[in-house]
Specification:
Layout lengths: L1 H13 L15 E4 L7 E3 L2 E3 L1 H12 L6 E3 L2 H10 L3 E7 L9 E16 L11 H5 L3 E4 L4 H7 L5 E4 L2 H10 L4 E5 H10 L7 E16 L5 H16 L2 H9 L4
Parallel strand pairs: 1-4, 1-5, 7-8, 7-9
Antiparallel strand pairs: 2-3, 5-10, 6-9, 6-10
Length: 250
């Protein structure tokens, strides 16, 4: 009799009074990112930026505290692709990534351009695609831009962990140009204390939509919660206010 009662208790623990299985606890999203002005960066160790304020506002909608961890971008992408409940941003939505992540919230469309320093041997503004192929081009480690450049027969590609290091390398002549998203590099120049007038832009090869994305294993309930929070902020005008604050080029 005791054994029957124990088994019945276990049954009730797994199923509710209506006989429906109780859902397992939903694992909350864990945001991971790197510094990408104007989307997110650290100022005196305090997060700033459009995406950070957006996530903070969305967290408030969900009754949570915003929490995120900074890593090198290549590690962020690897963790999120292989993990279960990571959220990352700003991730370019490209064909090769389409089925590797969940695409939660659009952030902005960006154009990708070449940037040169005024001390460079070749004027980046007048450089042809053929001339650019012979240059040492710096990109962010883990960026999807590597495949774009390789597809166009660029072979002298160098990698750095963040935009600050790329700008240092370009200023010191360690590389001839940077290939990056226009708004990110312009913002990085200003945020990291470089002079905007020392840099010039050249050819633009492509563009992409940037997103708040997540691991494929993110629970559907958690995915829906963040999307709903964003829709609320879109309707009440918060999203457009934040875009006007940070995206002066739009």
């Amino acid at each position: 009799m005791k054994k029957i009662i124990c088994l019945f208790a276990v049954f009730l623990g797994l199923f509710g009074p209506t006989g429906q299985a109780r859902s397992a606890a939903v694992e909350p999203i864990r945001w991971v990112t790197a510094e990408f002005p104007p989307f997110i960066w650290l100022q005196q160790n305090v997060p700033q930026g459009y995406a950070y304020e957006l996530i903070t506002a969305m967290s408030n909608q969900l009754g949570r505290q915003p929490a995120l961890t900074f890593y090198p971008w290549s590690r962020v992408v690897k963790m999120s692709k292989e993990g279960k409940s990571y959220g990352l941003f700003p991730l370019a939505r490209t064909p090769d990534r389409e089925t590797s992540f969940k695409w939660l919230v659009p952030l902005s469309k960006v154009n990708y351009s070449f940037f040169g320093h005024h001390t460079g041997k070749i004027s980046i503004e007048k450089a042809t695609l053929e001339q650019l192929r012979g240059m040492r081009i710096g990109i962010l480690r883990g960026s999807s831009l590597e495949k774009d450049l390789q597809a166009r027969n660029f072979r002298h590609i160098q990698y750095e962990k963040n935009y600050q290091d790329l700008l240092k390398m370009l200023s010191l002549g360690g590389i001839d140009a940077i290939y990056a998203g226009y708004p990110m590099l312009i913002s990085a120049i200003e945020e990291y204390g470089f002079r905007l007038e020392d840099f010039h832009t050249g050819v633009t090869l492509g563009s992409a939509e940037l997103y708040l994305a997540s691991s494929l294993g993110l629970h559907e309930q958690e995915e829906k919660a963040w999307k709903t929070a964003y829709e609320t902020l879109l309707k009440d005008g918060t999203v457009i206010k934040l875009k006007n604050k940070y995206f002066s080029w739009e």
